[in-house]
Amino acid sequence: EVQLKESGGGSVQTGGSLSLSCTISGYGYTSLCVGWFRQAPGKGREGVASISTRRATTYYADSVQGRFTISQDVAKNTAYLQMNNLKPEDTAMYYCAASSGARCDYVADKLSPAVYNMWGRGTQVTVSS
């Protein structure tokens, strides 16, 4: 079975940093696009960053550009999200998601939740002021 497992969430103060990891099993990692999404209470799910695993091309939401970095270790089937200069508005449940390359590589919006059909259970990130 396909499994996505996130780790690295926690609580930090404004300006702090966290690193999230997403390990994927049960699927060919380099056949995927991998994305990070977040959802705060009462709000919709928001795309944060994504990576095409074969090309290593990356995409970022404007709200996190310059603060967050997505990367990967192909040998470990793992994608990462380094989050720096965290703000209270970054507080959310963060989800790792994956989509087949055939699906995600041909859509204009790489950060649309609708593109992704494989999801982890999430890890909580809380940023206090």
How would you sum up this structure, described in words?
The protein has 129 residues and is mainly β. The protein has one helix spanning 101-104; strands spanning 3-7, 10-13, 18-25, 32-39, 46-52, 57-60, 68-73, 78-83, 92-100, 118-119, 123-128.
H and E order: EEEEEEEEEHEE
Beta-strand content estimate: over 45%
Name the helicity range.
under 10%
Average pLDDT works out at: 95
* Content-based structural category: mainly beta
- Biggest sheet details: 7 strands, mixed
Q: How many strands?
A: 11
Give a summary of the structure in a few sentences.
The chain is mainly beta and 129 residues long. The chain has one helix at 101-104, and strands spanning 3-7, 10-13, 18-25, 32-39, 46-52, 57-60, 68-73, 78-83, 92-100, 118-119, 123-128.
